[in-house]
Design goal:
Elements: H1 2-12, H2 16-29, H3 37-50, H4 54-64, H5 69-78, H6 84-92, E1 97-98, E2 104-105, H7 108-119, E3 125-126, E4 130-131, E5 136-137, E6 140-142, E7 147-151, H8 158-173, E8 179-182, H9 187-198
Parallel strand pairs: 7-8
Antiparallel strand pairs: 1-2, 3-6, 4-5, 6-7
Helix pairs in contact: 2-3, 2-4, 6-8, 7-9
Length: 200
Amino acid sequence: MGDDSKNQSDESSINPEDIEKYREVLMKVWEDGILTVEEQQLLSLLKEKMNITDEIHRDLEYLVLGRDRATILAIGELDRTGNSLEDEYRRRFPPRFRARDGHLVRNEMELNVDNYLYENGFVHSYQSEPLGDGKWVADFFLPDQGLYIEVWDTAENDLFAERKREKLNAYLGDKNATPINLSGPEYMDAVKRILGSLRE
């Protein structure tokens, strides 16, 4: 009840002209079909400045992309795993960044890893290789090397912490799966060090 009243209050304080300006920016950044890191940062700044809520952002983005809410929700249903924790993560953090190989990934860290793999000739899949009973999938899987890569967000968040704990347990239960765990500001150094050695 408190959250609903807060959202209504937030939306009532938004200037209609700002909504139109924000829609125009969305049309501009999405015109090439790809949302870059810089464009994502720009949208975040504008959302805060114009008091644009997440819900208004999603509705405007659906319109800009030519998709109605029903279509987006149907796509979301296809993304469900049967794992309530993972489904909540996917709902809250949908893929928004297009990597150079065409993969649509969820954050800047995953984008950098995916681009490195592609540019250095590593065949890889993104969030499609199942673990254990299939309720979890690896962030990245390199079939030629038999390597799994997990990219962990370092933000202080209960969902992130619980998801990491449960997903690592899934790896422990799968004898064939041992991931390379990436987190923190030095994660790309680790990628280049570990995977670079495989190319020598």
